[in-house]
């Protein structure tokens, strides 16, 4: 999600995203598998599709939030492994790309 497109004082919890990452263009990983590791072992996710921001963001964050996040609202994922994700730093890596899926 492109937090830099929101006001500096925006409470990112109001974006209704379960996991927020900094410095990662998540939209570029649609069709890939990614892993997040908070120090207890990686949790692998399939990156399925972009998450389109809804009009409710204009209510919870402020006018123009939906427009500011259009095309930059993050992605919808499916967990592929069990594990623990905690608040705080985590390592991010791409496990497989869209071309690795095979026929």
Description:
The structure is a single chain. By secondary structure, the protein is mostly beta strands. The chain has one domain. 10% of the residues lie in helices and 24% in strands. The protein has 2 helices and 4 strands. It has a 4-stranded antiparallel beta sheet with strand order 3-2-1-4, with no helix packed on it. A hairpin with a 4-residue loop joins strand 1 and strand 2. The longest helix has 5 residues. The radius of gyration is 14 Å and the shape is globular. The mean pLDDT is 85.
The total of helices stands at 2
Portion of residues in helices? under 10%
Tell me the fraction of residues in β-strands, as a range: 15-25%
Total separate domains: 1
- What's the order of the H and E elements? EEHHEE
Low-confidence sequence ranges:
none
Largest sheet: 4 strands, antiparallel
> Strand order within the widest sheet?
3-2-1-4
Oligomer: single chain
Mean pLDDT comes to 85
Count of DSSP strands:
4
* Helix-strand makeup class: mainly beta
How does the overall form come out from the CA principal axes? globular
For the termini, the CA-CA separation is: 31 Å
Rg: 14 Å
Domain MOSC: 1-94
Protein name: MOSC domain-containing protein YiiM
GO molecular function: catalytic activity; molybdenum ion binding; pyridoxal phosphate binding
Organism: Streptomyces caelestis
